Amino acid sequence: MISLKINGKPYNVEEDPKTPLLWILRDIIGLTGTKYGCGIGQCGACSVLIDEQSRRACMLPIEMLDGKSITTIEGLSDDSGLHPVQKAWIEHDVPQCGYCQSGQIISAVALLENNPNPSEAEIKTAMNGNLCRCGTYPRVEKAILTLKNDGDGIK
């Protein structure tokens, strides 16, 4: 049995310890916001936060996550509303097809938590691993640039 903390809730999972987190999230727990893209950790559609770091769920066996804090796209918003990054995505009309967007948003949250005021170059570098077939990269960058952290969290 593997103990996972997903979006603040405890889960005890009785699956093969080598099972990738992506399939536990989608098929066992029912959190389908994390998407399957390439299955080899290259596209970023399956990005989740593991202890506040962006990681690829398709490549993470659950045996490596016992006791870790996992946040999916569903865990970013709360009773008070959408996460500031989600709001910026809407404000800047970022998504087209939307398939990659949960991974893009997760990566942007991780970037801003670790670097509250990134430069354009730092945004491009941090977001480089998230592929978007629609090519909305300029809107992603613009949305991230509008978010500032004054020490009390992302605004």
- Please, how many domains? 2
Uncertain residue ranges:
none
Gross CATH architecture of the largest domain: Roll
Strand content: 5-15%
Global geometry? globular
Structural class comes to alpha+beta
Helical percent range?
25-40%
Strands, total number: 5
Q: Which sequence of strands runs across the widest sheet? A: 2-1-5-3-4
Describe this structure in words.
The chain is globular. It contains 5 helices and 5 strands; from the N terminus they run E-E-H-E-E-E-H-H-H-H. Strand 3 (47-50) and strand 4 (53-56) form a beta hairpin. The chain has 155 residues and is an alpha+beta fold. It has a 5-stranded mixed β-sheet, with helices on both faces. The chain folds into 2 domains: 2-75, Beta-grasp domain (Ubiquitin-like (UB roll), Roll); 84-145, [2Fe-2S]-binding domain (DNA polymerase, domain 1). Helix 2 crosses helix 5 (137-145). The mean pLDDT is 92. The longest helix is centred in the last third of the chain and has 14 residues, at 101-114. Keywords: 2Fe-2S, Iron, Iron-sulfur, Metal-binding, Oxidoreductase. InterPro entries: 2Fe-2S-bd (IPR002888), 2Fe-2S-bd_dom_sf (IPR036884), 2Fe-2S_ferredoxin-like_sf (IPR036010), 2Fe-2S_ferredoxin-type (IPR001041), 2Fe2S_fd_BS (IPR006058), Beta-grasp_dom_sf (IPR012675), Diverse_Oxidoreductases (IPR051452). This is (2Fe-2S)-binding protein. Residues 1-76 form the 2Fe-2S ferredoxin-type domain.
